[in-house]
Give the backbone structure.
Amino acid sequence: MSSNKSDQANALYESDFYGWTELQAKALATRQVEALDWQNLREEVISLGKQEYRELVSRLTVLVGHLLKWEYQLTVFSPSRTSWPTISSAIPVRIGHEFNDSTISPRRVFVS
């Protein structure tokens, strides 16, 4: 990207993020490499990946907490109580949707 186009893209990035994303998406769709704002695209892709990873770790943390509470409840209280199983059973479904909608590999999350 020429310096002038780069300055314009950076100014748009700073003033109208949504407009900048629309321009970048159009440039990607039409393969206009010279119109891409490489520096800000790189930063946004890295940021998006980190955000997705944090969200997944957060959901897994909540699941583990619920499972630990469920296990404790079953050992201390009557097994007929169903509040934790009901709550906990919905979390894996949501996490499953996250894996299906995401490019984050479950193997990568659990191995690292």
Observations:
- DSSP finds five helices and no strands in the chain.
